[in-house]
Design brief:
10 helices, five-stranded antiparallel beta sheet, 26% helix, GMP Synthetase, Chain A, domain 3, 4 domains, 22% strand, 354 residues, alpha+beta
């Protein structure tokens, strides 16, 4: 396994004292599959000198490097900061893949002006680690201050600049917040340049990082960078029960993965008859209760007996609807469906708690 982070380059390496094993604490979630491909323009291509640098959690930016500065994935670099001073980050992508990432994020090359100064020295990394250890304590202090001021906001993360001259507080809030008293209190407590940055609930989950109900790390904290709107119709099209406890993620919003297979379901559902159409049989009127998109079958039950479902093929339902339009009554559901296909459900009775 290739060792990439700064601690791995030391003699002792990254270690987990509890489990007594070596590990790397730097998270690289992008596979640089163009790392061995050289630009056809060589060093004459100015865009070849762009490098993607990752800071805390999912924050990434693009920087220009000097042509004689050789960098590889995992190198700690000292970069230019927007508000003066310098910041420390980790190189995640170099070479041709950087251009594709810039194009994917719709970033203009004219807006990229910040530069990489050098590879970080041991002293700069020690200063960076010192302020990283202060972030958790500062988070608790900031939350306590906001609570005492009765502000309806949640401070979810704190990030210090590499040189310790600026601190960024990430927060979530539903309404607009008046920061005048809060900034004064923060300035007197931390005695440092303060920046407040509002993020959404999905971005909060991406920053914190969790394990999803699928047993894997959250998509938003690994590879998912654009958040599309998700609504309950995505669950209905996939025949999922509207159980908000199961459909919502750690961000208390509908799970992003509900959209992953939605296009496939929408294309398959077009070939199904309208589920709101009722069929007329010898035993009475029946209505659709559920459909199986990939097995191409539909469940029907009599209106007078909705607790007993019968599974019928989609082709048969289409034929029945054609017969009904010609005023022909179809056979009973028992004849259309085999005995093994019927699903018996128990009747549920709900009582109001008084």
């Amino acid at each position: 396994m290739e060792k990439l982070c700064y601690s791995c380059l030391k003699k002792n390496g990254c270690s987990d004292k509890k489990n007594k094993r070596k590990q790397c604490f730097i998270k690289f979630d992008v596979m640089d599959w163009l790392s061995n491909i050289q630009s056809p323009f060589g060093f004459l291509d100015h865009n070849h000198n762009l490098v993607e640098v990752q800071f805390k959690n999912d924050r990434k930016e693009f920087f220009y490097k000097k042509q004689n500065l050789l960098l590889r994935k995992g190198d700690f670099v000292t970069v230019e900061s927007k508000f003066g001073g310098y910041d420390v980050g980790v190189v995640t992508i170099t070479g041709e893949l950087v251009k594709l990432q810039i194009r994917n994020k719709n970033i203009s090359l004219n807006s990229l002006k910040k530069k990489i100064y050098r590879k970080s020295t041991d002293k700069e990394i020690d200063i960076w680690n010192f302020y990283k250890k202060k972030e958790l304590k500062s988070l608790f202090q900031a939350r306590k201050i906001a609570k005492n001021l009765n502000l309806s906001m949640k401070i979810c993360d704190v990030e210090y600049q590499g040189d310790g001259k600026k601190v960024t507080f990430y927060y979530t809030a539903e309404n607009r917040i008046d920061f005048r008293k809060l900034i004064k209190k923060f300035a007197s407590t931390f005695r440092i340049r303060i920046e407040m940055r509002q993020i959404g609930y999905r971005q909060e989950a991406a920053k914190i990082g969790e394990i999803g109900s699928c047993g894997r790390e959250l998509c938003c904290s690994t590879w998912l960078k654009t958040f599309k709107s998700v609504n309950t119709n995505s669950a209905r099209y996939q025949q999922l029960s509207i159980n908000m406890e199961k459909l919502t993620g750690q961000c208390n919003k509908l799970k992003c993965c509900l959209n992953y297979e939605l296009d496939v379901y929408l294309s398959e559902i077009k070939d199904f008859p309208d589920i709101n159409e009722k069929i007329y049989t010898e035993k009475g009127i029946a209505q659709c209760m559920k459909i199986d998109v990939f097995k191409k079958k539909m469940w029907y039950s009599y209106i007078k007996n909705p607790n007993t479902w019968f599974k019928i093929e989609k082709k048969k339902i289409k034929d029945i609807l054609k017969k009904n339009k010609n005023n022909q009554i179809a056979p009973s559901l028992e004849k259309l469906s085999t005995i093994n296909d019927s699903i018996h459900q128990t009747e549920l009775t709900y009582y109001n708690n008084i």
